[in-house]
Amino acid sequence: MGRDYRGSVSVPAAPSPAPRSVVVVGTGLAGLRTVAELRAQGFDGEVTVVGAEAVPPYDRPPLSKELFSRVEPVWLSGEGYGDLADLADRVLPGRRATAVRADDDGVDLTVGPADAGDPAQGHGAAGEALTLHADVAVLATGAEPVRPAGWTGAAELHTVADAAALRGRLSAGTRLVVVGAGWIGAELAGQAAAQGCAVTVVEAAPTPLHRQLGADLGARTAPWYAAAGVELRCGAPVTAVEPGAVTLAGPDGAPGERLAADVVVTAVGVRPATRWLAGTLPLTGRGALRVDPAGRVAGAPASLRAVGDCADMEVPGLGLVPGGHWDAALTHPAGLVAGLLGHEVPAPGAPYVFSTQLGHDLAFVGAPTDAATVLLRGDPDGAWTALLVEPGPDGTGRLTAGFTVDRPRDVVPLRKLLAGGARPLLDRARAADAAVPLRKAVLAADRAGPAAGPA
Ligand SMILES: Cc1cc2nc3c(=O)[nH]c(=O)nc-3n(C[C@H](O)[C@H](O)[C@H](O)COP(=O)(O)OP(=O)(O)OC[C@H]3O[C@@H](n4cnc5c(N)ncnc54)[C@H](O)[C@@H]3O)c2cc1C
Q1: Does residue 428's CB lie within 6 angstroms of at least one atom of ligand 1?
Q2: H/E run at residue 403
Q3: Ligand 1 centroid vs 29 CA: distance in angstroms?
Q4: What is the structure's pLDDT at 116?
């Protein structure tokens, strides 16, 4: 693979002969954008889409951020991301793919029967399993919530159906226990507290967002809970969840305190929805398909591609970047389709996650290394950005990532500076000065030069 870190990744990726039929598995953002990109990049062959959910593609982030204020699903067609009904030849909603067989001649996809009573079926009787053949399959099956074994009676927040069910159960005075102070747990907790619920968040790690941001940055988000009227209990592993109660670990592994709850929500992370592929395709440690920027799956023929939350991407300059975020589902399909059609594959942007939680707007950009430490710019009690910087010579530092809190003006510069695996060298003093635009803290020699990847 030829690599140009700042421009495009030239990949001789197109299956030969050029594909004439594509089946896309999954009707989330990544599946929809794949279909839209196929048409936008000139594919005029047959496109079939299979999706386990019976509803049209919708946006997930508002489910937790606007749980009570946007009760209708935010349909992606209405937001300008494309309409499957216009773009695809066949859409098979409410059907789950159960097996795939791929070789250089194409793919056979086994698809389970449709949900009973779904009138939208256009192919095969609703109660029958199907085998679909296509030149290429794109797997865009997303992720599913982690459900610890034996935890009964807990709700989750992943789909429009989950959101509707929770809305019906949460009102002023409801005792809500959220297990997990990650992105979604924090967002839900804030929304429910604002609705008048009595909310407790329990988290096994010593800080919120510990896995996502590390101890230092995670700890800086902890005071936001009390300010939003949420009780936060960190370092509190849960040993049991049952209807009406959550039990915390006590001393020496014995069951400890029991928290009574009208509603318990587990928000302890997601895992790629790839269980049906185990034994067929190699998976990464977290159960994802390993892909390159053209969506080619490691260990699979060129007729199989993957994108979105179900994929971890090998990014030039960064290594393996775990999937799981909205921006990747939005933007990576363009590279996948380019590779499929023999076009130049654009380099993926910097990893980018956003969140609105507990009264704060957050963005995390980039991929920090273990050697990076926090360089703060802005007001730690107000709007601030934490730059994650590897130590460099003479008052400089190499930027690896940035975390913005209520400082949207730093988000676009961070995304530009870190695009294509770049790790620009900063003047630390200028970078720490919030009045200096971030790009002006980059040392001149590093502004236009080739990106510096990790050693
Ligand atoms: C409540 C919530 C809030 C979020 N907020 C943010 C945020 O603020 N910022 C951010 O960056 N990210 C956020 N995310 C994550 C973001 O929504 C996802 O990264 C994005 O939706 C991924 O899109 P996707 O198409 O890859 O997967 P998904 O949206 O999960 O879609 C995959 C689809 O495939 C279907 N499917 C699964 N298996 C099969 C199968 N075998 N056969 C057929 N169909 C199948 C699924 O049912 C699903 O419809 C949030 C997620 C949730 C749940």
Answers
A1: no
A2: strand 396-405
A3: 7
A4: 54
Alpha-carbon distance of 349 to 161, in angstroms, equals: 32
> Would you state the structure tokens that stand for residue 412, as one six-digit string?
């676009």
Asked if residue 407 lies in contact with residue 385, where contact means CB atoms within 8 angstroms, the answer is yes
Structure tokens at 411: 């988000």
- Average pLDDT, whole number, for the chain? 92
Give domain limits for the chain: 2-144+270-346, 147-266, 359-447
Domain 2-144+270-346 annotated CATH 3.50.50.60:
yes
- On whether the CB atoms of residues 153 and 179 are closer than 8 A, the answer is no
Pocket test for ligand 1, best of 325, 353, 354, 415 (most atoms within 8 A of CB): 325
CA of 309 to the centre of ligand 1 (A): 6
Q: Whose CA is nearest to atom 39 of ligand 1?
A: 141
Fold of 147-266: FAD/NAD(P)-binding domain (3.50.50)
DSSP state, residue 57: P
Instruction: Write down the pLDDT at residue 242.
Output: 92
Same fold, 2-144+270-346 and 359-447: no
Question: How many Å apart are CA 297 and CA 259, to the nearest integer?
Answer: 45
What kind of fold does domain 359-447 have according to CATH? Enolase-like; domain 1 (3.30.390)
**Is 385 near ligand 1, meaning CB less than 6 Å away?**
no
Q: How many residues does the chain have?
A: 455
pLDDT tens-digit series, residues 111-151: 999 875 444 444 455 678 999 999 999 999 999 999 999 99
Q: What is the DSSP string of 338-396?
A: HHHTTPPEEPP---EEEEEETTEEEEEEE---TT-EEEEEE-TTSSEEEEEEEE-STTE
Cα angle 56, 114, 105 (rounded to 5 degrees) comes to 90
Ligand 1 centroid–CA 448 distance in Å is: 36
445: pLDDT confidence band, cut at 50, 70 and 90? low
Whose CA is closest to atom 20 on ligand 1? 326
Ligand 1 atom with minimal separation from the 353 CA: 11
pLDDT bucket at 255, cuts 50 / 70 / 90: confident
The rounded percent of the chain whose pLDDT value lies above 90 is: 86
**Contact of 342 with 357, CB cutoff 8 Å:** no
For the Cβ of 140 lying below 6 angstroms from any atom of ligand 1, the answer is: yes
Nearest to 402 by CA among 418, 425, 391: 418
Q: Is the CB of 224 under 6 A from ligand 1?
A: no
Q: Which residues of 383-419 are buried (b: 16+ CB within 10 A; e: fewer)?
A: bbbbbbbbeeeeebbbbbbbbbbebeebbebbbbbbb
Whether 308 lines ligand 1, by a CB cut-off of 6 Å, is yes
Q: How many angstroms does the Cα of residue 342 sit away from the middle of ligand 1?
A: 28
